[in-house]
Structure formats: structure tokens, C-alpha cells
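## Example record

The block below lists the input lines for one assembly entry, exactly as stored, with component labels intact.
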Amino acid sequence: MHQDRKLVFCDGSRIMIEALAGAGASVYIGYPITPANWLYAYASQRFPTFLAAPDEISALQWAAGFSSTGQLPVTATSFPGFALMLESLNMAFMMELPLVIILAQRLGPSTGSATTGAQGDLLLLRGAISGGHPLPVLCPADFIDCWHLAARAAVTARELRTPVVLLTSKEMIMTSRSFDLSLLPPIVQGQLPSFENNGSYLPYRAGESRVPPFLPVGNTRHQVRLNASTHDHSGLIRKDSPESLANTMRLREKIEQRVAEFTFYHYDAEGEADTLVVTYGISSDAAREAVSNLRARGEKVSLLILKTLIPIPPPVFQIFEQYAQLLFVEENLNGQLKELCFGQRSPSALRSLNKIGKMITPEEIVEEVMLCKQVF
Amino acid sequence: MQTSILNDKKAPYCPGCGHTVITHTIDKALAALEINPLDVVAVSDIGCCGLVDGLLNCHTVHGLHGRSVALATGIAYGLNHPGKKVLVIQGDGGATIGLQHLMEAARQNLDLTLIVQNNLLYGMTGGQISGLSPMQFKGERMPEVQDVPGFDICELAHRAGASLAARTFVGDSNFNELFRRAFQTEGFSLLEIVEPCPSHGIKKVLDLHRTADYPAVELRNERPPHRTAPRETTSLLDSLPLIRARFSSNLRQRLEIVIAGSAGEGVQSCGDLLAYAGATSGLYTTKKGAYPVTVGSGFSIAEVILSRDRICYTGIAAPGVMIIVSQDGYDAVKSRLGKDTYLLMDASLAPPPGHCVISGDFRKIGGKKGAALAAVAFWIGQTDLISIKALEAAAGMHRHGDKLVANIESASRISKREIMLEG
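Predicted C-alpha cells for the full assembly:
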């Protein structure tokens, strides 16, 4: 333990909200829901503007309104609230309005168990945008991620002009730890691509960056048109003109072509290992501990913790190809990350460890890895 | 300065549609007030009324069906500028989909103007009746007939607190003037404009009054608009107390402790204090809570891990120590009791058969809200894994510190003789 450490006892919610505020998010709009209540409470202390919305549809609409004026809003919810936000999320995506949604997963379906953690919403997010467009999703695996990825979510939202989801779960944001704050890296603030030249302004005309420059509504230089319907560069409804369809396709391209800017994963490779444990979010701690225990027993095993979940960054597939056996560890019934990566009929070299209602334990992962090795 | 918010494009509405008249009236009213078009943000809803964007020189935001008032709420708050005019254009369908947003904007008395273009039906989808259709009304091509009274949205908005809620009919004598007054109003102004729909509904203005027997109203509340200004805040991390390892610990192995009691009895804060005390004793610590969705009833469980090594996984499968101070807590954790679990229970609880239990009158010593802490203090005193001083120091930082420290002192003075060993 080094001399300059700043040891505190705190939880992931606090770190996440502080990071978002530090990254320049200025507005929090929310409706409380378990297990996101601590985020709400911290935000009410920390954000320069805090508004209590009467429901989650209002929360996201208000957030989109703030975003259109150039501010970066944040909200936090869980599945029932997120379901209400879905249409408004599509609106913000289509209008290209930056905002950050923290989705704190809990056990579903429906209202499920509010105070039980889960990892059941990943495929929901993959299909959240009508048309199959990718919605950037970052998922913290530890407290340093709660800081770093929260800030990067803000940066990505701004620089790509898009809603970004920070996917987490009860166990990450409602568990307290003794933690050394000096481990947290400095935060970099992203910038909205702004319109600086004196020519005419078309709100959806994008250059090579694939992201159109932003001007806030209410500015006195240029007319701004924002539109949730299929639109041309000027922001006016055009049902199926080549320009408007190209604009709709660009919304996908800007995320997929620039995914390297928000690619995050932790790859702990063990030489000669033939088995790779793949996990994310709240199952990461158990996986880390399991891999450490296995190595202590002389077993060769590698670990990949994904932190950018949508889109899956291309290097991840290159890592997969290096292993004969992949074990996906997820606190859900159906192996959502596995399905996201490989579809419903996954190759036989893939195994899944799934569970609901309780956290997956290191012992269960160890057991499953040993089974993988036997099968192999 | 350009004063018209209208460009020279032809309105896309059917001949004789009230929307055309309203659009021109909005323009005239804003021009009369010399409002710069780029100081205007027009938020349009879905439906025929939402086709207005293309006619406008001001900023335009075209959102979702029924959500335009909520979207405009965010814009008005975000602009936070009395010189900017936020204008919402919505039909009767949008107004009823988003009635909650309308009520909320009126309640907050947000500085925006909402024009509800009430043509008595859903025009774009074929002329179905709406929540603002009058009794016995039916669209020309639809079989359904309105058989319940429509909402009086002016009355609703007025009761909710809108600065202005007014209803008028296209072509009425006060028509132009009413728009001007709405735009001059500080706070939420709602204009419900009853108008014809030549394709599906009432075709002539004269027939409108006969069918829609709504009263023309102009209702006012004298109250300022709600605004929000950004405030200065400070770091959530800088306010945390820095932990110095000033106590020592005899702990050798990772120890997992479950404290179980009832909601509202201080179980969670007890877990926090134990974990904090562990951290000030040079240990890595974690704490998590488990409880049902109820707030003041049911079980409450705090799970604490103390370790010399960095803690990765924070779950507890088979706890080394269980401290149980209520029946709710016992019922919730009894299935996790292992044969080697060190079990400390309140004396009021029936111990599990065949298990070694240390019991004490923790509920009597600490009271209902202090039983968990009394039991933890006793346990620390018995095991000496961390110093009782560490727990006292942690408790001293609590807002009820004196009381908690006194509780710890009382509990740590319990002699072993008072403890009953069973099993």
C-alpha cells in the first residue's frame, strides 16, 4: 500500500455520480426506483441541476429537452422505468441528443425482485433501438470502472451525439468497500462537435466524423431543427429520400465505425491456456477470484472481462479465436452475452454458467472451468 | 430583423383546415410582439399539427406523440431564459396521450405556451373520436360515437396552476388577441383552439359551436413561473472521511459475517460501522445489504467481509459468523447456517437445535434499534479480532454517535457469565 493513498469507505453509486458530474454532466433528472435510489440521492446532492420527474417518460423527455440546449443530462433507472423510457430513448437516438442512462439491473421479468441483482437486460439493450441500430453500452466491473466508464459514457455521449447506457446492477452500486481513491485516474471531458464556420448550417449534415456539428436550440446564429422522424440534413421529415435514408444509416455507422474510441475490456491472458472465461459486470469479481484460485492450483485459464458490450468491439472476437473453449459467466438464464456474440445456436466449444436470484460464486466458476477442461 | 416565423412554403393542410388559420395567427401574434424567430423554439407533436415544422423559420423540434409538452419542459428549463419563447403545438390526441405532461407543466407553471389544436378527432388516422370530443360526436367515416364527456383541459390546467388556460374557437372575435396574451404570459399558458376538420369532422366554423358546446374561457392564476438555476455543488468524494489504519487487528483469514435483524432496527448502519472499524484496523472490508422491498418491516441483513487480502468477490455463501437479533432476521438467514458458523443470537430467539449458540440480551441492552450493534460489540469483545476502540471510533462519527458509543460500552461490559451456551 503506497503512502499517498486516500482510503475511504464508499459505494459504487457515489463514485459513478461523482465521475459523471466531473465529466461535465450538469443535469440529473430522475424518478426513483430500486436499486437505483442511491444514484438518485447522490445526484440530488451533486448535480448543478437536479429535477425530480413525475415518471420515467417525463424523465427522458425532459433530459432530451435539456440536451437540445447543449447540456449533458443523466438519469438512472431499472427495467420497469427503462421500459417506459424506450420510445423517448429512440427519439433521443434519432435526434442525436447526448445523454447518459444508468440502467441498474434487477431480477425480472416485469417488476421481478427489486432488491435482487441480475444481468438480464443486455439483449433488451441490443434490441432497444428500432431498426437494430447499436446503442453504446458500457458496463463497469469494479469501482475504478464505476469512475472511468461513467466518465467515458459522458465523453462518448457528447462526441458521438448519442444516448449511452451505463449498464450496472444492484451488487455494483449498493455494495460498499474500503477503497483507495488515489487509484482513480483523472477525468477527461468530451466535447460536443460544435459548428464554428460562418456558412449555412444543416443540423444533420455530417462530415467524415459521421457526427454532425451541434448547435443548441435557441441560439441566434442559425435555425436548428431536431426531428425524431426520418429526416434529411435540414432536419425536416423526408419519408424515403436517398438523403434521409443515408442519414438513418449514418446513425449506425457513426457508432460502429467509431467503436474503437469507446472500446474497453480487461484481458488477463495466461500462456498456453486453452480455456477463456468471459464475463462482465457483477460476475467479474467472482470470475477474477475463480481464475486466481485455478491458477494457484496450476490450471491454465485466461479471463476476459468485457466492458464495452454494445457494439461488441472487433478485437474481442480476435481474442475468442485464440481459445478452444470459452466459458460465458452471466447472472441470467439464457447467456445473453454469449447470444449477443454467437447467436442462439452457439458452437459446441462454448459453455455457459448461468444463474438467477443469487450471485454466481467463484467456486461455481472453478467447477465449470474444470468441466470445460474435462470435456476438452 | 426578420419578424415572421413563417417561410414562404405552402401549408400542407387540407383546404379549410383550422391548422392553417392557427399557424398564421401564431405568426401574427409573435410578429406583433417583435419576437425574433430565432428566439422561438417550436416543439411539435405527432399528427396533422406536427406538419407545421416545415413552415417555420424558428427552431423546430419534432418529437413523439403526446410527449411534446414534456420535451418542451426540458427545453424551457434548459434555456432558462425569459427572452426565449418555447411554443408547443399539439392536437387533441397528443393532449390526451400526454395529459400527465400537460398537468405537470401547469403545476410547475413552466414558461411555455401550449396550443392544443382541438379538431374534435384524430385527423391523421381517419377521424376517430378523442378524449376532447364532445358528447354524441362522431367522425364522418367512423362508426364510433362519443358517449362520455370529454376532458375540460382548460379547467384541469387551471386547477393544476397554469398562469393562463383559455379556450376559443377558430374565427372568434377575440382569436388574434388571445394568442398575443398567451405569448405575453409569464408561466404556462394553454390555448385550446376548437377548430374544424374538413376531411373527417365539422366542416364549417358555424357548425362548430353547435356541435362543440364548450364554453369559451380565459382562466388565470397569478403566480410566477418555475425556473431552475444551476447551483454550486461540491465533490461527493472529498466529503468522505479519509481512513487511517490507527487500530490493529488479530484477524488472519478472510472472515464473512452476516448480521440479521429487522428493518428499521439499525442493522445496515451496524454493518457499515463494523466494516468501517475493520478498515481503520488495516483490513480490507466490504458491506452489502439485503432486504425485501418493504421499508419499515420485514428482515434486514448486513453482510460484512473483513480480510487482510484485497477482496474481490463480495458474496457470502457460508458465513463464518452470524449475528441474529430478531425473528425476521433469523427466518431470513437460517438456511445459510453452516455447522461451523459461529452463531450469536438474541436471548429472545429459540436457538436452532443441535447448534452451538451464544445468546445474550442484546435487545434489552441496546434497545430495539441498538440490538445489532450491541451484539456486534459483544462479539468483538469476545473475539478481539479488532479493537472495540475501532468500533467506538466508527460509531463516534455517526450523527447519534454518543448514544451508539454508550451502547457499545454497555455491551462490551457484559461478562461471559451472562451468556448461555446451548446445543
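Residues 318 and 336 of chain B are 6 Å apart (CA to CA). The two ends of chain B are 92 Å apart (CA to CA).
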